[in-house]
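User: Need the bound-state model for zinc ion:
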Amino acid sequence: MPIKRWLCLLTIFMSANVFAWGGKGHKVIAQIAWDHLTPHSQAIIQPLLKQKGFQSLAEAANWPDLLRDDPAYHHTKTWHYVNLPRQQTSIKPSRDCIRGCVLTALQTNLNRLTAVNSDLNTKAQALAFVVHLVGDMHQPLHVSFAFDKGGNSHSVLFEGKSINLHYYWDTAVLGNDQRWLTLAGKIQKQFSHVQQELGRYDDFYQWVAESHKLTQKIYAQPVKIIGAEKARTDQNVAYQRLAQAGFRTAVLLNRVFESTL
Ligand code: ADE
Ligand code: ZN
Ligand code: ZN
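Assistant: Bound-state model below.
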C-alpha cells in the first residue's frame, strides 16, 4: 500500500478516539445499564434496537461515534462534550453550549425519545444518543477546556508510547486485559455501592460538575509520564465513572419508560 494511504488510514484510526470513551467504555456502560433496566423498559427498547439493526444496547451506545464523517450528522460533533473557561466553576449553557453541547444534546434526545409524534427511527437514534451522551458526561475530559481540545492536543507517555491525554482517559486507562462484557460484570459488582449515591435521576448538571471536578484535579497535577501506580489510581476513577454512568442510564430510562404503555 502506498505510504500516503497508510498515513491516511493511521490518521483516521488515531482520530477515532477524539469523541468519546472508546468503544469499550460505551459498551461497558450500556451493558451495566441493560442489566439494571426493568423488563418493561427492556421490552420497549427491543423494537428500537431492531429498527436500526443493533444487536444490543451496547452496539447502539457506540453508534454515535461512527457518524463523525457523515455530513448528515455534522451537527452532532459538538454534542459529545462541553468545554468551559478555565477559571469558571460551573457550566453555563448560554456561554458554553452555543453550538450545542453534551448537556443540551442529552435534553434534545430525551425529548425526541419521549415525544408522542416521534417515529420509530427517530426514537431509535435518540435512544442510542441518550445512552452514549450520559456516558460521555462521565468521562472527565468531556467536561473540559477548549485550549487543548479536552486533552486531545496534550501528549503523555504511557506504557512506553506517546499518546494524547484525552485518548488516555477515553481508552488506554481502561486497560486491555479484559473484554468489555467481562469488565461490565466486574465493575458493576465492584462498584455496586455507588448506587446509593447516584442523586436525582435527571440531575445532569451534577454529573457534569463531577467530571469537571475530576478534570480540574487532572490539570492541577500535570504529568508527562504516567507510571503504573498512577494508572491504577486513574483506572479506579474511570471504572467508578463507568459504573455511575451505567446505573444512572438505567434509572433515567426506567423513569422515562415508566409512564409509557
Ligand atoms: N474537542 C474539543 N474539546 C473536546 C472535549 N472536551 N472532548 C472531546 N472532544 C473535544
Ligand atoms: Zn461521544
Ligand atoms: Zn473522548
